Amino acid sequence: MTPTAPKTQRRVDWDVYFMNIARVVSSRSTCDRKFVGAVIVRDKTILSTGYNGSIRKLEHCDEVGHMMENDHCVATVHAEANAILQAAKNGVCIDGATIYTTASPCWPCFKLIANAGLRRICYGEFYRDERIFSIAAKIGVDLVQVTPSAEGK
C-alpha cells in the first residue's frame, strides 16, 4: 500500500477567522436596526467580545422599540464599547490589541478604541464616519477592511 499525501486544506487567514467570529457575535445583538459584533484579540487569542445591546437590566430594542435621535437608536451600547467594557470588567488588559468589528466604528467608539490602546482596527463594512481614517493615520492606529471569505488568503 502506497502512502498518500495528506490533502492540503486552504485555511482562512487570521483576519478572516476573527472577523467570522465577530459576525457570529453580532447574532446576539438586541437592536434590530444594526447587528454588530466585536472581538478583541492579541497574539491570536480572543480577549473579549461585545455586541450592540441595551444597558444591563433594561429592556432591549427588539422587545420594547427604539429610542431614536437624529435617525439613530441611542438606547444601545455599541459592540466595540461593550467589548472594551467587558475586558475592563474582567480585568483583561487590551493595550496593543486588535479589534475586529463587523462595521467600522462610529466616531465615539473610535475614540474609545484609540484611548483603550488598541493599535489595529479590522472592520467589515464601512459605517458612516470618514473622520476615523485621517485620525487613525495621525495617531498610528491601523485600519484594515476585512472582506468576508470562507477561503484562504
Explain this structure.
The chain has helices at 14-26, 61-64, 79-89, 107-115, 131-139, and strands at 37-42, 45-51, 53-54, 68-69, 72-73, 76-77, 98-103, 120-125, 142-145. The protein is an alpha/beta fold and 153 residues long. It is built from five helices and nine strands; from the N terminus they run H-E-E-E-H-E-E-E-H-E-H-E-H-E. Helices cover 30% and strands 24% of the residues. The termini are far apart. The model has no long low-confidence stretch (mean pLDDT 91). Strand 7 (98-103), helix 4 (107-115) and strand 8 form a beta-alpha-beta unit.
How many extended strands?
A: 9
Strand pairing plus helix content: what structural class? alpha/beta
Oligomer: single chain
One letter per element, helices H and strands E, the order comes to HEEEHEEEHEHEHE
Strand order across the largest sheet: 2-1-7-8-9
Low-confidence segments, ≥5 residues, pLDDT <50? none
Count of runs of 4 or more consecutive helical residues: 5
Distance between termini?
A: 35 Å
- The averaged pLDDT comes out at 91
Fraction of residues in helices? 25-40%
Strand content: 15-25%
Apparent shape: globular
Rg over C-alpha atoms, rounded to the nearest angstrom: 17 Å
Biggest sheet layout:
5 strands, mixed
Features:
5-stranded mixed beta sheet; 153 residues; 9 strands; alpha/beta
